[in-house]
Write a structure and sequence with these properties.
By secondary structure, the protein is mainly beta. Helices cover 14% and strands 37% of the residues.
Length: 423
């Protein structure tokens, strides 16, 4: 009878803990990236009655275990340009004010006054900063991410010009075949210059190209109309020589035509633009078929100065800088950490976790690699707590508490009856 008291009391304590857990889950129904806790009960050692051991009476229930359920939450699109959600496994890596490393699924980030990217509660987001060419070394050490919004991107002078085009093989070998191509290039100060290229057929499968002189008030350019470059094609319309240099060698020399711009009135430094007839992969860009001469593509690598207008998180956590001229550039990338047994992480508040003695070593890398999930920009992950499920559990734990309270009442009545037998 006295065992019934202790068993029921242990059950009251256990169900109280379970109700506390449900209450916390319900309190975080709208917490971004929250992971609900699950309660697991287990019984205590049974007491054996009699010599044969055929009668065993349990000693009640132990303190419940609680475990985080790291199930995928719903991905919700937001209007926040610094919002990010993890689809799959992994955690964002952040640092607290003391430099301690924490992990979180909450991706509602913001920017501080000095441009540091932080969580909603101020932890510094970790990742990698891109180099000047937009390359991110995700194998290196992570660090704080700073968003240089409002800064000026310097101008870059054009160095390479890639023209994808066809020259009309059916054209007459005279001035009527002349094909003019105006192209835009930039000097070191970001000033736009228009360079006009001329293509004219001079014979069977033979063409010449030259650049019109610049306005003398702007500067000079060479080669000009006195320095023409000869192009020769084979019977299949493939470019085979440039100024007599065989382009069919293995590997091909991929000869370029340099356009030297000098004496610029803008005050910019002299520079040379290489007119490329082959792509970086080695594929020819110029053909000669019996179709109208036309440009199919034009790429140049110069750019004017521009203001950085905004930074947004793209797919897989890439940080994209958007400039006032409409161009974009990669300036960094968010880091993700994978933990082999995330249920062992310890919640420290502010939607963050730290590793425990039982946790596997977190492995940090880029999203979409090494079993890590992907990052969706402009979205957040909803709470893992479900109202219907939590209310169902709440009713079950309430009934369990009431039932064990009834056991105590019954055991008390039986004790009173037993005591009254002596009277």
């Amino acid at each position: 009878m006295f065992t019934a008291f202790s068993s029921a009391l242990s059950a009251l304590a256990g169900h109280t803990t379970a109700v506390d857990v449900v209450g916390n889950n319900l309190a975080n129904l709208n917490t971004i990236g929250f992971k609900r806790s699950e309660v697991s009960f287990y019984d205590l050692l049974s007491r054996t009655l009699g010599a044969s051991g055929q009668t065993q009476v349990g000693m009640g229930v132990g303190r419940p275990f609680t475990s985080r359920q790291f199930n995928q939450g719903a991905i919700q699109t937001t209007s926040g340009r610094l919002d990010a959600a993890i689809q799959g496994e992994g955690f964002f890596v952040v640092k607290d004010a003391n430099g301690g490393v924490l992990y979180t699924r909450a991706g509602n980030f913001k920017k501080t006054a000095d441009g540091t990217m932080v969580t909603a509660t101020g932890e510094r987001v970790q990742g990698w900063v891109a180099d000047a060419d937009g390359n991110v070394l995700s194998a290196g050490a992570v660090g704080d991410i700073r968003l240089p919004e409002g800064s000026l991107r310097p101008a870059t002078a054009t160095q390479n010009l890639f023209l994808t085009m066809n020259l009309n093989a059916a054209a007459n070998a005279d001035v009527t075949s002349q094909f003019k191509v105006p192209v835009r290039v930039f000097d070191s100060l970001g000033n736009e210059l228009i360079v006009t290229l001329n293509y004219e057929k001079t014979g069977v499968n033979a063409w010449q190209v030259w650049a019109d002189p610049l306005d003398p008030a702007i500067g000079t350019i060479a080669p000009d109309d006195t320095a023409k470059v000869d192009l020769e094609f084979d019977a299949n319309g493939t470019l085979i020589t440039i100024d007599g240099v065989d382009q069919a060698a293995d590997p091909p020399p991929q000869t370029t035509v340099g356009l030297a711009l000098s004496g610029l009135s803008s005050g910019a430094v002299d520079f040379t633009v290489d007119l490329n007839y082959f792509a970086p992969t080695g594929a020819p860009l110029v053909s000669q078929y019996a179709q109208s001469s036309a440009i199919a593509g034009l790429v140049q690598d110069g750019q004017p100065a521009a203001q950085l207008s905004r930074v947004a998180i793209g797919d897989n956590g890439v940080l994209l800088a958007q400039y006032s001229d409409g161009t974009e550039a990669i300036i960094g990338q968010l880091a993700l950490a994978s933990v082999g047994n995330p249920e062992t992480l310890v919640a420290v508040g502010n939607n963050a976790f730290r590793v425990s003695a039982n946790s596997a070593e977190p492995v940090i890398g880029a999203a979409g690699t090494g079993g890590r999930g992907t990052i969706v920009g402009g979205a957040t992950e909803a709470s893992g707590a479900d109202m219907a499920r939590e209310f169902t559990n709440l009713i079950v734990y309430q009934r369990g508490y009431q039932a064990n309270a009834r056991v105590i009442t019954t055991a008390d009545e039986l004790s009173a009856e037993t005591i009254n037998l002596k009277r």
